[in-house]
Design goal:
Blueprint: H1 2-17, E1 20-22, H2 24-34, H3 36-57, E2 62-68, E3 72-80, E4 86-106, E5 111-124, E6 129-145, H4 150-216, H5 222-257, E7 270-272, H6 285-295, H7 297-318, E8 323-336, E9 347-357, H8 365-431, H9 437-472, E10 474-475, E11 480-481
Helix pairs in contact: 2-3, 2-4, 3-4, 4-5, 4-7, 4-9, 6-7, 6-8, 7-8, 8-9
Length: 484
């Protein structure tokens, strides 16, 4: 009974120690779920969300309480006498004030309307007197005239910035997928090279032993035997290099995707599956471009950049001309030695003021600022137009590349199969003394080249596949927009 238990335990440990085959889809999903790059993209999206919430809050009523409590002073102050002399009189007082206000911005005009209540208490400790002053009710407005209205432009630009930030988060996660794909194939190519090196080492060792018997039988020359011995040594060297390259590539992939080992200090091998099954996609260039325009952050950025250029031009014009601010208010106010005196038969309180600034002589400074803004707007237009052309060219290039690579994968897979079959035939012929060592070496090289070309073609295809997803933010495999 105990023997059976320990046998099962040993089998379980051996199975757990065996490398697990991981697919490309699993690696991409793992990278999107727990990689540092994915977490950073999600954090940036949350920052973008709260920045937009902060912007929206500016256009809602703001209730605030401000004041100075206490505001105590004990000192000597300068007092001018009727005869012109100066005396320094002692003072000791507390002048506290509280102000409760409710304000609302007016985005179309850039002004602010507010309602307030205010209470002030003055205590003169030298004279032992107290006096109250207050505004039971007050309403007012502050309205800039002929000035640049930042709020009106923010209402146009900030929603675009928010939408752009959301799409940037999706693009960042798609970039994570592309980076994970690149690292996946770096490791896969290294593992294939390692398999090739292990196979070549074993085959060369077997062929070298066969050649030793052929030499005794006089069916092979000493030179051919030395060439096979050299092949064995080169295979050993290639195997050591392939192991080191595979180990480094495995560590890079695990580090990027946040792969966690089950036991601390133990690096289990990560065996990758070859993604031979590729989706048979027929992508229309116009459809890809339309999806890119609708989904990409760059497309939203084109509109935002033009609005920012127009905003800067208007700001240059308005800030260098007549600027005025109208402030007006109405309310009730009163004062007295008691607190309730403030609220008993209060008097009317009105005020209005108009402050203005009119540049008269600037020596061409105002015109230079405006002309600079015009030039920047023209530069922005030209840059956006160039970026749009590059944007369209990238889509066209990637769609045609994906279609070409689809055929390339099929061709290299057939060449790989032919190379493997040809090498097997060459190996059998060598064993029968019907093939030279040189021809066997050529068959080995072509077999290895065909194998590597097949893997590299798969790598190019999947890189192009995820790059097209990144450029369009559209999944042509499921025919859906990419969302997270």
């Amino acid at each position: 009974m105990y023997g059976l238990f320990f046998a099962l335990l040993l089998i379980t440990q051996q199975l757990a120690a065996q490398p697990q085959t991981t697919t490309l889809t699993e690696v991409v999903q793992l990278a999107q779920a727990q990689s540092v790059a994915a977490k950073r993209a999600n954090t940036q999206q949350r920052t973008n969300y709260w920045q937009y919430r902060s912007f929206l809050a500016q256009f809602k009523p703001q209730l605030s309480l401000d004041g100075s409590l206490p505001n105590f002073t004990r000192s000597y102050v300068q007092v001018t006498q009727p005869d012109g002399n100066i005396r320094f009189e002692p003072v000791s007082y507390n002048n506290s004030i509280l102000n409760l206000s409710l304000s609302q911005t007016i985005a179309p005009t850039g002004g602010t309307i507010f309602v307030q209540q205010q209470l002030q208490r003055f205590d003169n400790f030298i004279q032992s007197s107290t006096l109250y002053n207050g505004i039971p009710f007050g309403i007012g407005v502050t309205q800039p005239l002929f000035q640049f209205n930042q709020m009106r432009w923010d209402r146009k630009i900030q929603p675009l910035l928010y939408a752009e930030g959301n799409q940037l988060q999706i693009e960042s996660l798609e970039q994570v997928s592309l980076s994970a794909t690149n690292l996946y194939f770096d490791l896969l190519v290294a593992q294939v090279n390692l398999q090739i090196a292990e196979t070549n080492r074993a085959n060369n060792d077997t062929l070298y032993r066969i050649a030793l018997h052929k030499l005794d039988m006089g069916k092979i020359s000493q030179n051919d035997l030395l060439q096979l011995q050299l092949s064995v040594l080169n295979a050993e060297k290639d195997l050591a290099s392939a192991r080191q390259t595979a180990a480094v590539a495995s560590l890079k992939l695990k580090t990027f995707v946040g792969y966690r080992e089950e036991s601390a200090g133990q690096l289990r091998p990560l065996e990758l599956a070859i993604p031979n099954q590729i989706p048979d996609l027929i992508v229309d260039v116009k459809r890809a471009f339309d999806e890119a325009v609708a989904n990409r952050a760059g497309s939203i950025g084109f509109r935002r950049r033009m609005l920012e250029a127009e905003r800067d031009l208007e700001k240059a014009r308005k800030n260098n001309g007549l600027n005025a601010t109208l402030t007006a208010g109405y309310g009730l106010s009163n004062q007295g030695p008691n607190l309730l005196d403030v609220y008993v038969r209060p008097q009317n309180r009105e005020y209005v003021s108009l402050q203005f600034t009119l540049p008269i002589m600037t020596w061409g400074r105002a015109q230079a600022i405006v002309e600079t803004a015009k030039a920047n707007r023209q530069l922005a237009q030209q840059t956006v137009e160039q970026d749009k052309l590059t944007f369209e060219q990238e889509i066209f290039t990637q769609v045609t590349l994906l279609q070409m690579l689809n055929q390339q994968v099929t061709l290299t897979a057939k060449a790989d199969q032919i190379g493997q079959n040809r090498y097997q035939i060459a190996q059998d012929r060598f064993k029968l003394s019907d093939l030279s060592v040189t021809d066997l070496g050529i068959a080995t090289q072509e077999k290895d080249r065909a194998r590597r070309d097949a893997i590299l073609a798969l790598r190019d295809y999947w890189q192009a596949f995820y790059t097209l997803r990144l450029l369009t933010l559209f999944d042509f495999e499921t025919n859906q927009k990419i969302k997270y």
